[in-house]
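Extended Data, panel c. Modelled sequence:
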Amino acid sequence: MIVTIPRFTPEIFAERFVRQNSKWILDKIEKFKKAGPIFSLKGSRGDYLANKEKAYQIVQKSLKKFSAFYGMRVRKIVIKNTKSRWGSCGRSGILNFNYKIAFLPEHLADYLIVHELCHLKEMNHSGKFWNLVAKAIPDYKNRRKELLKFRI
């Protein structure tokens, strides 16, 4: 386990946090052990530049299919090198995706793309949003769970 703290925070705060939350930490470690292997998709700026176009092509192809299915229009696709998000949707209709989507199995990339596309109609994670996702990806719950095995 690695504990990360802000740059100028005294170590005593991290030690206190670990002591006070040891049961919770051990429970989380046990949960991760049971979940099976986790795949880390670490990459450099060079990896980003080398794979940005590949990611764009994957997203564009999938969006063409799913935007037609939903009757939605995407204003713009942006491929980024984000630290913690697979994708996001802005109110202006711009869909952002992490370039590492290019390394996911196709069914998980499709789930991510549909997820962000559905935010064009529902900018939340309400029941209406998930019902919309389910129209194209009926097993979205399984895919969402499987995606947790991949770390950005």
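The domain at 45-151 is CATH 3.30.2010.10 (Zincin-like). This feature is highlighted in the accompanying rendering.
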